[in-house]
Specification:
The protein has 113 residues and is α+β, with helices and mostly antiparallel strands. It has one domain. It has helices spanning 25-34, 73-82, 94-111; strands spanning 10-14, 17-22, 53-57, 60-63. It has a two-stranded antiparallel sheet. A hairpin with a 2-residue loop joins β3 and β4 (60-63). The longest helix has 18 residues, at 94-111. It is globular and about 35 Å long.
Length: 113
């Protein structure tokens, strides 16, 4: 059995970058109700998901695994730095990366609320 989860985690990408660009109607309604200002941060590149996702080749993605909504922003940034995913944010300092991680954690919590 196969389940199509495209609508759950809509992602597009090209070599070196991943973009969260697809949001189904149900998700948009959910975010509009629970966090109306949040999705605007995900309709750009880099976006908070870029801390954990990166296009590694023309056929796939690499990601940081073992991430949970209970982690701290500092832990997320640390994992991103270990995998050099923070290089997708060349103009951001540590404080900016922490803000991106907070947006990511907020997305995870709202998405699954």
């Amino acid at each position: 059995m196969a389940l199509d989860v495209t609508e759950l985690w809509g992602i597009s990408g090209q070599l070196g970058r991943v973009e969260k660009t697809c949001f189904c109607t149900a998700c948009i309604r959910h975010f509009d109700k629970n966090a109306p200002d949040l999705l605007k941060h995900y309709r750009t590149f880099p976006n908070p998901w870029s801390l954990l996702l990166r296009s590694a080749s023309s056929t796939g993605m690499t990601h940081v695994s073992d991430v949970s909504a209970s982690m701290s922003a500092e832990e997320i940034v640390g994992l991103a730095r270990q995998r050099k995913f923070d290089e997708q944010f060349p103009d951001l300092d540590y404080a900016d990366l922490l803000r991106m991680a907070e947006l990511l954690l907020r997305y995870m919590r709202v998405r699954h609320s």
